[in-house]
Amino acid sequence: MSTAPTDQDTTYHSLVDGAALAGTAGSIRAVNPATNGEGETEFTLLDDDQVTKATEAAEQAFAAYRTITPQQRSAFLTAAAAKIEASGEQIITTAMAETGLPQQRLQGELARTVNQLRLFAKVAETGDHLGVRIEPALPDRKPLPRPDLRQRKLALGPVAVFGASNFPLAFSVAGGDTASALAAGCPVVFKAHNAHPGTSQIVGQAICAAVAEQGLPSGVFSLVYGHGKEVGQALVRDPRIKAVGFTGSRSGGTALMETAAARSEPIPVYAEMSSINPIFVLPSALEKSEELASGFVTSLTGSAGQLCTAPGLLFVPEGPAGDAFVEQISQQLSETTGSTMLTPGICASRKRGEETLAELPGVAQVARGAEGSGENAPAAAVYSTDVSTFLSTAALSEEIFGSVCLVIRYANAAELTEAVTGLEGQLTATLHLDEENADDVAVARNLLPHLELKAGRILVGGWPTGVDVGDAIVHGGPFPATSDGRSTSVGTLAIDRWLRPVAYQNLPEALQPQEVRESNPWHLTRRINGEYQLASRK
Amino acid sequence: MSTAPTDQDTTYHSLVDGAALAGTAGSIRAVNPATNGEGETEFTLLDDDQVTKATEAAEQAFAAYRTITPQQRSAFLTAAAAKIEASGEQIITTAMAETGLPQQRLQGELARTVNQLRLFAKVAETGDHLGVRIEPALPDRKPLPRPDLRQRKLALGPVAVFGASNFPLAFSVAGGDTASALAAGCPVVFKAHNAHPGTSQIVGQAICAAVAEQGLPSGVFSLVYGHGKEVGQALVRDPRIKAVGFTGSRSGGTALMETAAARSEPIPVYAEMSSINPIFVLPSALEKSEELASGFVTSLTGSAGQLCTAPGLLFVPEGPAGDAFVEQISQQLSETTGSTMLTPGICASRKRGEETLAELPGVAQVARGAEGSGENAPAAAVYSTDVSTFLSTAALSEEIFGSVCLVIRYANAAELTEAVTGLEGQLTATLHLDEENADDVAVARNLLPHLELKAGRILVGGWPTGVDVGDAIVHGGPFPATSDGRSTSVGTLAIDRWLRPVAYQNLPEALQPQEVRESNPWHLTRRINGEYQLASRK
């Protein structure tokens, strides 16, 4: 195992099957987006054939890894969390230089990442996701006897995970996809994002160290560096890979979906891609417009607008109260300074997106902040249009990743419904209303059934940025928010993505998996004859 | 609504949005496969544009249908079961003429169909599939307060269902896909199989009558006749359709998968397609070879071998005991007479499949029955080969739909493992062993982890034909057994296919859906802070 990437003269490699593997497809260096300066550390890139070593190791590890006890799996995830935490200082320093994200944000993200691993350690140990269902034999049933049937869920197999640029920790090497797949019993081959290779190396080493410490097969986790598209496609085509997790752009996600669907054995792809997270301000919410404007500006500009749930559409009533609200936004936004974006490429793409937006007929700029110091720190900006322009201009539904928002002025509730019906799938939708105001409540009640069909999470009040990682969260939504609206990439339900049910008919107990045995050795909550029987936990 | 198709002079039509809709794309008549004679009744076929009327009606109905109470949904499914049962005699007579299946088999299938509807009525009423998870707000949590988060599952939207030829009732108009989708809250547009249009008409009328009786929107269920491929593709392309259920051939299923993946909004396809259901006879099981041979012949020839779970591969040890077993099969099979297959086309395809098989090098016929009287009643046949031929000949893994089985003689346990590793995904895998024999048990224990990765249901003893519809069954499996190994098309878990989760953050109770309200008005079992709280049911 290599040392950590703060030693500037060292070259770092992919971590494959428990060892560093020098890539033969060139190398990259991290770029500090605040200066556009290259780091001194080199990271070698694997070619397609080398990636196969990781998938072979994952396949090899799968047989043993999927059958360890819930306690062993939980101990492994807990150990990984502890080792990442122990490298916390180094992780934060490296991530700051590689992503331009501020220290406090990264500290919060690190805490979220290790808490997420510990949450999945608990999930793995509890075993509710195993979904055990038992129907004992009924030999005397008429007209036919009932066989003994026992069902449990099983890990799909090795999973390829692609991390996001915008969460170098919580949606990266040890992020939610990795944590939930490992908790399910799937080995993970993680494709590092080239925007934060050093951060990835430290976290990858921590996971590998936990694998070794816990005596697990070394193929349980591999970290691979490579040219994004080539290696990504090779991974998804690899017959040993049985599912894919991805967080990134719509074009990147749909390319993986196509590759996965074209395999001789198609596999599921869970891609979280694109969302513009509409906010609906109902008339009476404007009574607290000052506070609302301030909340909006904070949500829009946090992390340079580079959050999957950042508000991209703000529906505001026409008329003087709405005008005043937009004026307050303009005032408050003018006092903001742009912060550094993740990469020069993301910043360039955001600038192009804003230029396209600004030139569209019927769209006008209504608010603008100041550029930040250093490179890649564009000014936050808000534009405005009306519902009919929005509905007739497809480009206005495209996400601009960064702190750009479109205000849509609406005339009445009917226009709002029409706009919602015209939306694509979203991660979130937010309503601001006065809960005491009967008109607002009536409009909300009418909108909700439409919003439910468009979004994975619906908020009343507050802002969609900030995702609480727990048991009830949904971070998902209909296409193109994700490739598969039947799932979430955050929270305990995310584990369901990596499982499939298997039924056992008339197996003697000695041949049954532990999960379904009469004696319930793992103390699982199970369904017996269709009724839950709660585990007697210690 | 039209009358029933026993009136021979009447022409029948699709049932769309609660009324008969005469198709403009020609018409078909049923063919009696025992005589190849055409029925006198005509069924008009819809063109692509007419099919849109059904999807529009389904979309229209969705808003109201998905929000009715569990009791209302349960009452509707129960009413549909009763109305189908009331037409039982007419259904059986019509189905016998259209499918060549014997009366007793169809009576059993009818009972299964109405029981399945009643099972899903109970599922709908219980509401466990709603998957409610609640995490109440924790305003004092550090470092950040926790919002109130409430999650429930929601129906995906209108579903297109394609019925199978081989189960004119249980996998057809009111089959498992329809029952589970309706129970989930999804309107159904059912594409009738052209092999049993009259049976479809009677069952479709019964469901439409239940829709009307229960005061539900008429678009909740439509039955459409059409040219299979054209209308099928049009349905799956239709933007109002949000998921697809299909039972049929591999080519038919993969064609729908491709169409669904190519939509601007890709949708899930649940296709149950192709399985050869391997049976593994371990050495000591041969001590009861007479009984085993008899069970095998019954499983192979039942319903003319036209069951998704019919045994297509039989692994038998090399050596004298295995030889004797194959001889017993040969003896018993020679006493069987072929029964009528479902359609002339299916019979022709089975004959072609057998011819191809017979000509493959290393494959020899070892057993054959007699042809049946009348048309389309081929003799059952068993061929034999060895493991290395099986593994090196891709054609031997292709399903031949009908009573044709391939015996594979194996030398030892290692060859068996190798053969399993070379299998494609299957609905079932069956082991026959002597549970008292340590060698058999050791071989089984070694095979099971491999079988789990290949099949949705694993049996010890017995035969895979005969699927028990309940809470613990899995009728699914990795591709190509199904398009999506994460699901089952039979049993209560099938409802999960039509749902997606939505989270509600900080909604005032008055705006929350009933499922997640603190007062739990629907008496649901829910997860509160990650722990199940069982419903207090009446």
UniProtKB/TrEMBL annotation, chains A, B:
Protein name from the UniProt record: Aldehyde dehydrogenase (NADP(+))
Signal peptide: none
Transmembrane regions: none
InterPro entries: Ald_DH/histidinol_DH (IPR016161), Ald_DH_C (IPR016163), Ald_DH_N (IPR016162), Aldehyde_DH_dom (IPR015590), Aldehyde_DH_Superfamily (IPR050740), ALDH_KGSADH (IPR044151)
Keywords in alphabetical order: Oxidoreductase
PANTHER family documented for this protein: ALDEHYDE DEHYDROGENASE-RELATED, SUCCINATE-SEMIALDEHYDE DEHYDROGENASE, MITOCHONDRIAL
Highest classification ranks of the organism: Bacteria, Bacillati, Actinomycetota, Actinomycetes, Micrococcales
Alphabetical list of Pfam families matching this protein: Aldedh
GO MF: oxidoreductase activity, acting on the aldehyde or oxo group of donors, NAD or NADP as acceptor
Domain Aldehyde dehydrogenase: 26-431
